Amino acid sequence: MSLELSRKATQVKPSSTLVITAKAKAMKAEGIDIVGFGAGEPDFDTPANIKDAAKKALDDGFTKYTPAPGTVELKEAVCKKFKERNNLDYAPNQIVISNGGKHSLCNVFQAILNPGDEVIIPAPYWLTYPETVKLCDGTPVYIKTDASTGYKATAEQIAAACTENTKALILCTPSNPTGMVYTKDELEAIAKVAIEKDFYVVADEMYEYLVYDGAEHVSIGSLGDEIYKRTITCSGLSKSYAMTGWRLGFTGTPVEIAKVMGSIQSHQTSNVNSITQKAALEALTGPQEEVEEMRKSFERRRNLMGDLLSEMKYVKFVKPQGAFYYFVDLSDAFGKEYKGKKIESAADAAAILIEDYHVVIVPCADFGAPECFRLSYAISDDDIKKGLGRLSQFLDDLK
Ligand code: PLP
To answer: Of 3.40.50.300, 3.90.190.20, 3.40.50.140, 3.40.640.10, which CATH number belongs to 64-285?
Structure first.
């Protein structure tokens, strides 16, 4: 007998963004005037029509189990959204409604991976991807991207990373953490590789509504029958509808994958909260003006942050076209000193910024880019100005 814990589970790192956000909250609770650029969620409240639908669901007694992969009416609404917004033809038996985008990804990788299967992950990546792949017995294979391609993986890089064990590619557009948006041409070239080498594309489109400057979000699965068959389209309401706490994500997949995901979910969590499902139905089918207003606010803040960052020393960035993050390269400051301590990574800067300047940034070592940090602009204009003023002061104070 042994009291050893699961080796697979204990190798999982806690989410460093949640750790940083918790630290900022704790400092705030102590009365410290802290500006947090760590937010991975909109600062807006969920629109009232969505909340009202949830209240009505409660009052109507819609409080029982639903089918594990979601109610028929919600799956139909998701199909309609996929058709109208993404030009993707899915039937309700191809849809699985899960407890947030993270849960969708867990279901996906449990459904498709066998031990030894490789999953290509372009770096910088959202830090949850490698941990989820590993938990599901897969092996992450990283591709390093940089500013020269706008932090986007090219079809050539992806082809070069393929082996006989390649099972899937994770493609996040608009991207967390870089804010980059893949163009149709880039996606067509990637789709060609996926078809030739015969692997799945797990398309994480969680930020699909949040694109700026007229950039167009394109779903790779819409680019022809062959790529459609290999695409697992993942999206949800958390970011676009300010519904992070409600916990609802959804996928469109080939029928056989949806079936397996539904079975897994039926044992692990059953259905998403019935009330959340009613709220999601209203989100997808009700008025969309407020969603567009939130998008416009993010666009304004993106411009504000870009203007202020471009006046600062040492920082380099590619202006994001989507999501709500700036991805900033700090390597020009490496070797400089603050109070006798050499800055050698974004994590070094983050530690000083939180303690001495009361600003929280997210160092991106866990995102596959230790030289960079991420700034969220899902905070007020005033906080953006105040926080970036402090960041600028820190950079000026470096010797
Ligand atoms: N995908 C990306 C790229 C994300 O950044 C997030 C959340 O941060 C998610 C998926 C998951 O969102 P949730 O589980 O909150 O619905």
So the answer is: 3.40.640.10
